[in-house]
Design a protein that fits this description.
The chain is mainly α and 113 residues long. The protein has 5 helices and 2 strands. A two-stranded parallel ribbon has the order 1-2. Helix 2 packs across helix 3, helix 3 packs across helix 4 and helix 4 packs across helix 5.
């Protein structure tokens, strides 16, 4: 509202509203409620940010999603396979700076540009 009042234009053209992440028995995972024994920061440090991102991207926009350890394990396996594939592709190019090339290819695989 402040951006619309101050600049006379809406702050966003498009917006997506996402649901909550729930435990299997329906309890919401959040900082306020405690989320049972799960905290997002702990899950990221335990499994990796890529694995947790993969699991959360499987949820439909606007709907509640259930936390599933199997989805996170699948995300961990897929991110490891992508990393191994990048290393396999980069192996024949020892003269190119490997860190820079890995960064470029990894960005293309994950982000798409």
């Amino acid at each position: 509202m402040l951006a619309h009042y101050k600049y006379n234009q809406p702050p966003w053209k498009d917006i997506a509203i996402s649901g909550h992440i729930l435990l299997r028995h329906g309890e919401k995972i959040s900082k306020r409620t405690g989320g049972g024994t799960l905290r997002p920061e702990d899950q990221i440090s335990l499994h990796s940010a890529d694995a947790v991102r993969f699991a959360m991207c499987a949820a439909a926009l606007g709907l509640d999603a259930y936390y599933d350890d199997q989805e996170i394990e699948m995300g961990k396996k897929i991110s490891q396979q992508l990393y191994n594939a990048a290393n396999f592709v980069l192996a024949p190019w020892p003269t190119i700076n490997p860190k820079l090339l890995k960064l470029i290819l990894w960005k293309q695989l994950i982000v798409g540009f």
